[in-house]
Design brief:
0% strand
Length: 160
Amino acid sequence: MPEGPRNIIEQFFCSVGDVLEAPVVWVREKIVVPNQQNYPWYHQKLRRVPTIDECYTDDVVCQHEANVQYKRDKQVDTEILSILRDRFEDCTMYEAPDHLERCGPLLKKYEEAATNWFIKYGDLGAYHNAKIAYMKQKHRMIWERRHGQVGTGMKEGSPA
């Protein structure tokens, strides 16, 4: 198979494509790539700070950093959930009418992520922080130790 264009029409379209592609390649190579390497805010990677359970009760700075990290993690988890939901909705629209069969794995991933999100962030109210979420996690672990996994009913012989 020859590498170049086969006829004059294909050669014309290759030339038009090169004219349209050249400025884009130039911008990427001359502006975007150099700024990615030198610009500190481009996909900023923040260090992990101690969580709220590792902070002393009188260490306000540590507690503030834990709250900021908690809010950032919540935003990330919410966006991941939104992306999974959008993927499932797109699959449903594209694969209709047999979307239940073809989009089943996406639905399962979305439902699992939604359950995990609700376990961590659900029922906390409008104004919550890392300490409130930590207490929710602690109370859930105590409940599961006493009564079994939440949502499966109580174990036999457990106090009501």
